[in-house]
C-alpha cells in the first residue's frame, strides 16, 4: 500500500515538474505590521509573472527562504500556497500601432505573514525558479535554459535604528506596454514607499536561479547570487543596449528599443532614509519586443559624429506605414537652422564642430502626429581604447585607458570586464579587477569626453590559471666551447636558474655555455601569477656521425640516405641530386653511380662521412607497336627483350602470358603491359605497353523491306559504315554508295539485296532488304475483315503500303467515332483490343494519310469488319 502511495506522489510530481517553469518575471514587497513579543511582524506579497500563451503552470505551493542579509545564514523556509491568480491583458494598444502584439500575463500572488527578531544586518526574503523562458536575446546563447531569483530586503537596525520597522517600496508601474523593435518607447518601473523614503532607480543584474529538479520551485539556496551571463553589447547597466536609459528619480525607462526578441530587464529601487540606503528592492521581467511599428518620431537619443566623419544620416527609426509626412531640422547652438528637409531619409555634412539640435516631426497636424528632439555631437577625432596588464585568474588585472580625443578631454569611463558577476564594472580611468573565473572575457569600455562624445570599444582577453609561457626548444645540444642563447616567450618578469655558465639570467633570452649537460628552469612572474618551464642543454665535445652502408639501386630511382648522428645541422653534396640537402635523411635521385658526402655540425664542431650509390639500368622491355583490329577479331603481339623472365598483363584475353608473341582477343580496346626482369642488379622490372585498339562493331543496316510499283523511283538508304557495296547490282544506279536509286519495269514477288558495310579499317558486315514490285499505282492495302481469335490466322489487321514513302497516320474508329488504333508504321497492325480490353465484333472505319515516293499525298478511307 505504501509503495502505491509513493508511486502516485512521484507521478504527480512529474506532471507538475513538466509544467511549473518558464517564469517571465517576479517581484516582492512587504508591509511592517508592528512588534509583538519582541518580534517584528511583516505582511509579505510576492508576484510571479508568466506569459498567458506559454501553456505552463505557476508553482503552487511556492517555497520561500529567509536569510541573514549580512552573513547569508539560513533562517527558515516557508511553503506558501498561491493566494490567487490574475490575468493582465492589453485590450487597446492604440490607433497608431501597426501589427500590435498580444500582451498578456498570468500573475500568481503569494501572501504570508512572517515574524523576525530585530537584526543588525537585516534579512533577505528569496524565491527561486529553475527556468526562465527560453531564447533570451540579451544573454549568452550557449547557456540555454537559465533560472531566476527574486528577492525582498528588510533592513537591520545596524543601518538605521528604525530599519526593522520599514515597509518596503512597492512597484506600481503599468506592465501593459507594447514595445516595438527599433522604435521609441517608455516603460514605467515606478514604485511607492509608505515610509516616504527617498527612492532611487537603476538597472541592475538579474540573478540566476536554483538547481532543483525539472521546473519545480524548491527551497532557495543561500546568498550571494550570481548574475545571469549577459551577451555582447548588453549588461546589468544596459539590458536593452546603449540607447535605453532609466530615470533615477522616476523609474521611467525610455529610449529606442533593440531588435525583436525577449530581453531580461531588472530594475532596483533603493530606499534612502536620511541620506543612507537602507534596503534595495528588485523587479525582474522578461520583456518581449516584437516586429510591430509605431507611428512615432523615433531617432537616437544622440548622434555621435566623433570618429572621422562630419556627415549625419537622418532616418526615422519607425517604419510605420501610418507615417505620411516627415520634416527634419538641424539647429546650431545659436538657434539658427542650418538644414531643413521634408525627405524621409536624408543626410547633411556639418561645416563646423559643435553641438547641434536634431528635430524630427511626423504627420504634422494629422492623426498620430509626433515629434522628437535629439543632439548631434560633431567633434571628430575621438577614439576609445585601452591596454591590459595581467591575465591571471584571481590575480589583479590592470586596465589602462588609452582613449584619444581631438577636442576636449576624456572625462568618464564605463567599464564592464565581462566576468558576469554583476560587480565586474568600474567608472575609474584605469581600474584593477580580479577575475573570478577563467576563459575568454569580452571587455567593454564606454568612454566620453568633455564635448559630449561617447563611444564604445570591445576587446577579448583570455584569463588563465598561469601566464602563457613557451620555449623555442626544450631539448638541445651544444659542443664545447660554443655558447647558446635560450629563448622564452611570454609577458612578465623572467628569471632563470641555476645561474651556472649563464649571462642575463633575468631576461627572456639568456646566453649559456655549460661544460656538462644541464637543465635550466625559467620562471615567469606576471603580477604575482607564476608559470615555469625548463629546457635541457646537452653538452658534447665532438660530433658523432656514421653514414649508411653503400647501396645499389635502379638507374634514375629515388633512394633515401640516412645517418646515425647527434648533429644539429647537415649538408649533403652533390646538392643538385639531393632533394633536401639540409636534412639528416634526404631523398636523392641518382642516374649515374655517385659518391655522396655528408657534413654534420653541432655549432663549431664538425664531422664528415660518405655513401656510394651504384646504379644499374632497368631491364629493357619492348612490347611492340600499337595496332588496330576489327570487332571480335584477334591480334598477335610482337615483343622483344633481353631479360631472363617476363610476363604480360592483363591475362584473360591473351593466349599465353609467358611468351613474347601471344595472341590477343580483346572485346574492347586494351593496353597490354610487358614486365621484364633480369639479374644484373636492378630488382625492379622494366615496363612497356602496347595498345590494341578494337574498332566498334559495325551496325549494318540496309533499310526496311518495302514495296514499290512499276516505273516508280525507289531510294535505298544503307547506314553503319564508311563504305558500301550492294549485290546484286540489278536496277541500281550505283552499287558502291550508301543510297543508290532503282526503277523497276516488271513486277516481282520479292527482290533481295545484300549490302556490305565497311568501316575505316576495312572491316565488313552485311544487311539485307527485300523489295516487292507491284503493277499498280501507289496504294495502301487494308483488309476488309479480320478474326482476332488467337488461332494464328488473320489475327492482326495491318496496312500494307505499296509505292509509299511514308505513312503519316493509319487510324481505326468504332461506330461511336472513338479512336481505337493509330500507327504510322507500315504493316504495324491492330489486334482488336484497346488497352488489353477486347473490342466487340462489328464494322469499324479506317482512314490513312501517306506520301508516295514522288512526294504526292495519298489519302484513303474505308470500312472493315471485326469477326469474333
Automatic annotation (TrEMBL):
Keyword line: Signal
Residues of the signal peptide: 1-20
InterPro entries reported in the protein's UniProt record: Ig-like_fold, PKD/Chitinase_dom, PKD_dom, PKD_dom_sf, T9SS_type_B
CDD domains linked to this entry: PKD
Domain (PKD): residue spans on this chain: 412-463
Keyword Nucleotide-binding appears in the UniProt entry: no
Name assigned to this protein: PKD domain-containing protein
Naturally occurring in which organism (per UniProt): Niastella koreensis
Amino acid at each position: 500500500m505504501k509503495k502505491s502511495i509513493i508511486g502516485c506522489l512521484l507521478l504527480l510530481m512529474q506532471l507538475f515538474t513538466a509544467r511549473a517553469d518558464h517564469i517571465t518575471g517576479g517581484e516582492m514587497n512587504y508591509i511592517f505590521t508592528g512588534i509583538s513579543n519582541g518580534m517584528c511582524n511583516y505582511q509579505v506579497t510576492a508576484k510571479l509573472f508568466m506569459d498567458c500563451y506559454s501553456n505552463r503552470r505557476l508553482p503552487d505551493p511556492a517555497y520561500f527562504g529567509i536569510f541573514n542579509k549580512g552573513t547569508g545564514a539560513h533562517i527558515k523556509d516557508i511553503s506558501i500556497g498561491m493566494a490567487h491568480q490574475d490575468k493582465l491583458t492589453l485590450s487597446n494598444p492604440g490607433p497608431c500601432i501597426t501589427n500590435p502584439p498580444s500582451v498578456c500575463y498570468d500573475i500568481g500572488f503569494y501572501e504570508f505573514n512572517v515574524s523576525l527578531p530585530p537584526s543588525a544586518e537585516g534579512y533577505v526574503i528569496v524565491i527561486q525558479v529553475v527556468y526562465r523562458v527560453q531564447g533570451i536575446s540579451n544573454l549568452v546563447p550557449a547557456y540555454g535554459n537559465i533560472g531566476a531569483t527574486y528577492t525582498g530586503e528588510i533592513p537591520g537596525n545596524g543601518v538605521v535604528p528604525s530599519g526593522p520597522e520599514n515597509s518596503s517600496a512597492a512597484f506600481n508601474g503599468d506592465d501593459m506596454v507594447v514595445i516595438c523593435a527599433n522604435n521609441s518607447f517608455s516603460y514605467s518601473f515606478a514604485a511607492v514607499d509608505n515610509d516616504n523614503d527617498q527612492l532611487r532607480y537603476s538597472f541592475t543584474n538579474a540573478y540566476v536561479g536554483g538547481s532543483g529538479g525539472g521546473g519545480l520551485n524548491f527551497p532557495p539556496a543561500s546568498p550571494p547570487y550570481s548574475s545571469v551571463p549577459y551577451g555582447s553589447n548588453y549588461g546589468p547597466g544596459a539590458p536593452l543596449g546603449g540607447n535605453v536609459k532609466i530615470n533615477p528619480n522616476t523609474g521611467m525607462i525610455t529610449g529606442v528599443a533593440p531588435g525583436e526578441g525577449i530581453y531580461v530587464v531588472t530594475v532596483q529601487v533603493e530606499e534612502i532614509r536620511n541620506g543612507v540606503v537602507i534596503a534595495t528592492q528588485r523587479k525582474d521581467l522578461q520583456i518581449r519586443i516584437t516586429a510591430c511599428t509605431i507611428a512615432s518620431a523615433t531617432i537616437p537619443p544622440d548622434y555621435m559624429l566623433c570618429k572621422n566623419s562630419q556627415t549625419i544620416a537622418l532616418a526615422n527609426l519607425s517604419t510605420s506605414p501610418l507615417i505620411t509626412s516627415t520634416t527634419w531640422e538641424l539647429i546650431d547652438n545659436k538657434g539658427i537652422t542650418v538644414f531643413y528637409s521634408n525627405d524621409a531619409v536624408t543626410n547633411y555634412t556639418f561645416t563646423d564642430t559643435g553641438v547641434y539640435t536634431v528635430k524630427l516631426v511626423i504627420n504634422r497636424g494629422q492623426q498620430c502626429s509626433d515629434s522628437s528632439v535629439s543632439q548631434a555631437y560633431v567633434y571628430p577625432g575621438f577614439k576609445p581604447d585601452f591596454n591590459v596588464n595581467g591575465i591571471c585568474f584571481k590575480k589583479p588585472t590592470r586596465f589602462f585607458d588609452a582613449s584619444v580625443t581631438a577636442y576636449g578631454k576624456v572625462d568618464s569611463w564605463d567599464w564592464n570586464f565581462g566576468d558576469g558577476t554583476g560587480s565586474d564594472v568600474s567608472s575609474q580611468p584605469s581600474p584593477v579587477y580580479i577575475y573570478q573565473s577563467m576563459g575568454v572575457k569580452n571587455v567593454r569600455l564606454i568612454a566620453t569626453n568633455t564635448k559630449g562624445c561617447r563611444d564604445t570599444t570591445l576587446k577579448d582577453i583570455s584569463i588563465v590559471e598561469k601566464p602563457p609561457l613557451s620555449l623555442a626548444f626544450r631539448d638541445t645540444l651544444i659542443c664545447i666551447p660554443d655558447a647558446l642563447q635560450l629563448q622564452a616567450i611570454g609577458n612578465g618578469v623572467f628569471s632563470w636558474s641555476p645561474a651556472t655558465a649563464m649571462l642575463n639570467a633575468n631576461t627572456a633570452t639568456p646566453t649559456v655555455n655549460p661544460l656538462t649537460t644541464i637543465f635550466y628552469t625559467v620562471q615567469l612572474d606576471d603580477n604575482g601569477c607564476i608559470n615555469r618551464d625548463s629546457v635541457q642543454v646537452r653538452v658534447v665535445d665532438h660530433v658523432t656521425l656514421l653514414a649508411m652502408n653503400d647501396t645499389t639501386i635502379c638507374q634514375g630511382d629515388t633512394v633515401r640516405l640516412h645517418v646515425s648522428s647527434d648533429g644539429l645541422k647537415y649538408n649533403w653534396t652533390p646538392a643538385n641530386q639531393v632533394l633536401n640537402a639540409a636534412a639528416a635523411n634526404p631523398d636523392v635521385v641518382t642516374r649515374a653511380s655517385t659518391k655522396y658526402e655528408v657534413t654534420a655540425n653541432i655549432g663549431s664542431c664538425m664531422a664528415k662521412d660518405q655513401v656510394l650509390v651504384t646504379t644499374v639500368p632497368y631491364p629493357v622491355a619492348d612490347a611492340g607497336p600499337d595496332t588496330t583490329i576489327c570487332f571480335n577479331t584477334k591480334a598477335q603481339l610482337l615483343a622483344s627483350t633481353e631479360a631472363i623472365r617476363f610476363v604480360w598483363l592483363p591475362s584473360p584475353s591473351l593466349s599465353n602470358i609467358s611468351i613474347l608473341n601471344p595472341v590477343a582477343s580483346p572485346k574492347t580496346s586494351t593496353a597490354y603491359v610487358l614486365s621484364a626482369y633480369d639479374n644484373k642488379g636492378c630488382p625492379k622490372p622494366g615496363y612497356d605497353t602496347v595498345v590494341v585498339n578494337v574498332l566498334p562493331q559495325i551496325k549494318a543496316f540496309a533499310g526496311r523491306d518495302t514495296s514499290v510499283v512499276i516505273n516508280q523511283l525507289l531510294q535505298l538508304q544503307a547506314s553503319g559504315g564508311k563504305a558500301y557495296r550492294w549485290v546484286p547490282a540489278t536496277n541500281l544506279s550505283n552499287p558502291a554508295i550508301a543510297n543508290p536509286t532503282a526503277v523497276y519495269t516488271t513486277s516481282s514477288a520479292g527482290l533481295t539485296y545484300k549490302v556490305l558495310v565497311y568501316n575505316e579499317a576495312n572491316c565488313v558486315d552485311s544487311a539485307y532488304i527485300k523489295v516487292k514490285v507491284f503493277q499498280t499505282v501507289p496504294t495502301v492495302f487494308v483488309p476488309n475483315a479480320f478474326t482476332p481469335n488467337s488461332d494464328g490466322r488473320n489475327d492482326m489487321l495491318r496496312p500494307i503500303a505499296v509505292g509509299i514513302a511514308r505513312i503519316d497516320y493509319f487510324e481505326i474508329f468504332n461506330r461511336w467515332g472513338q479512336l481505337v488504333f493509330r500507327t504510322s508504321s507500315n504493316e504495324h497492325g491492330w489486334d482488336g483490343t484497346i488497352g488489353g480490353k477486347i473490342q466487340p465484333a462489328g464494322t469499324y472505319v479506317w482512314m490513312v494519310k501517306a506520301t508516295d515516293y514522288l512526294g504526292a499525298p495519298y489519302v484513303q478511307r474505308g470500312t472493315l469488319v471485326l469477326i469474333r
